[in-house]
Amino acid sequence: MAENNQQLQIELKPEVAEGIYSNLAILTHSSSEFVADFVQMMPGMQKAQVRSRIIMAPEHAKRLLAALQDNVQKYEQQFGTIKLPQPQSNEGRTIAPFNLKQGDA
């Protein structure tokens, strides 16, 4: 069996390398894709702005989940447990930033 020694080259343009700040992610899916909207909410503002949208196949979403779990575990081993605020009611699992209740944004 022949070995494939090709390396993937990834280009990171300066404007992308700066990144986009997001403090809320909204995830949805259909039978064929997962959609992640990364939102920036600012205190006192009535509108939250979607800053970036990523659309991926279910297989890629599952790989992303595994990679995030692995990285969170490594982060916690190095820096300590990440503490999340406890929800005040059974409105769901989403916790809005800035101590807003769901639907207040």
Short overview:
It contains two helices and three strands; from the N terminus they run αβββα. It has 105 residues and is of the alpha+beta class.
What would the keywords be for this entry?
single chain; 3-stranded antiparallel beta sheet; 2 helices; 105 residues
Plain-language structure description:
- The chain is α+β, with helices and mostly antiparallel strands and 105 residues long.
- It has a domain at 14-84.
- It has helices at residues 14-17, 58-79; strands at 24-29, 34-40, 49-56.
- It has a three-stranded antiparallel beta sheet with strand order 1-2-3.
- The longest helix is centred in the middle third of the chain and has 22 residues, at 58-79.
- The mean pLDDT is 86.
Low-confidence stretches: none
Number of strands: 3
Helix content: 10-25%
Q: Which structural class fits the helix and strand makeup?
A: alpha+beta
Topology readout:
Elements: H1 14-17, E1 24-29, E2 34-40, E3 49-56, H2 58-79
Antiparallel strand pairs: 1-2, 2-3
